[in-house]
Amino acid sequence: MKPFKTLLNMKSGELNPYKGVIERRLSDTKGMWLDAQAYSKLLNQEDKLIYKVYEVDVPQKSGQLPHCTTIIYPGKVGSEYFMTKGHFHLKEDTAEIYFCLQGEGYLLMQTRQEQVSYIQMKSGTIAYVPPYQGHRTMNTGDEEFIFLAVYPGDAGHDYKAVEERGFAKVLVEERGSPQLMRNPKYVSEPE
C-alpha cells in the first residue's frame, strides 16, 4: 500500500476521496427507540436521514488504521436524540478514537458487564473508547454533529449485540437538557 492523503471538509464532514458512504435512515433503526409510537408517527411523515458515514479506502486488517467521518443530523424520536446504531468490536481488545469537528453530542460506552460511561463532545473534543466497550453517539444539538473516527483495521464491528439488547442506558431530553436514564427495554447479556 502506498501513502495517501484525504481532504476533510471541516464544515460538511465529507472526505475526498472516499471509498463509500453508509446512510442510516429512520427505517434502519426500527426497534432502537423507547417510544415505538413516536417512531411510527415520525416514519409515517418521512423516512429521515439519521446519520451517514464517509469511509476511506484502507484495508480492514491488522496493522492498518481505517478512518471515517460520521455526520449525525439533529432530531429526536420522542425524547431520544438521533443516534448511531452503536457496536462492539468483534476483536474486543481494540480501542477507538473519536475527534469532534463540529456540533455537540454524547459518546455512550458500555462494557458487557453493563458498566456505563459517557463523554460529552463538542468541537475539539478527542474521546478515547477503551477496549471492551460498546459505543454509540447521539446528537444533542441543533446542528449536525460531525466527528472523525480512527480504529484498528482488524477491530471489526458487532452491531448484532446492540440490535438485540440495546444499551443499559439511554440519553433523553428532559426539561430541555440531556439526561442519562435506565433503558427499560435493555436485555442483559446471557450468562
Question: What's the short version?
Answer:
The chain is mainly beta and 191 residues long.
**Main sheet summary:** 6 strands, antiparallel
Query: Percentage of helical residues?
Result: under 10%
* N-to-C span: 43 Å
The count of domains is 1
Walk me through what this model shows.
This protein is mostly beta strands. The chain has a single domain, classed as Sandwich (Jelly Rolls). It is 8% helix and 40% strand. It has two helices and 15 strands. It starts with 6 loop residues before the first strand and ends in a 9-residue tail after the last strand. The model has no long low-confidence stretch (mean pLDDT 96).
Features:
six-stranded antiparallel β-sheet; mainly beta; 191 residues; 15 strands; three-stranded antiparallel β-sheet
Chain-wise SSE layout:
Layout: E1 7-8, E2 15-16, E3 20-25, H1 36-45, E4 49-55, E5 67-72, E6 76-77, E7 80-81, E8 96-102, E9 104-110, E10 116-122, E11 126-129, E12 134-139, E13 145-150, H2 160-165, E14 169-174, E15 177-182
Antiparallel strand pairs: 1-2, 3-4, 4-5, 5-13, 6-7, 8-11, 8-13, 9-10, 9-12, 14-15
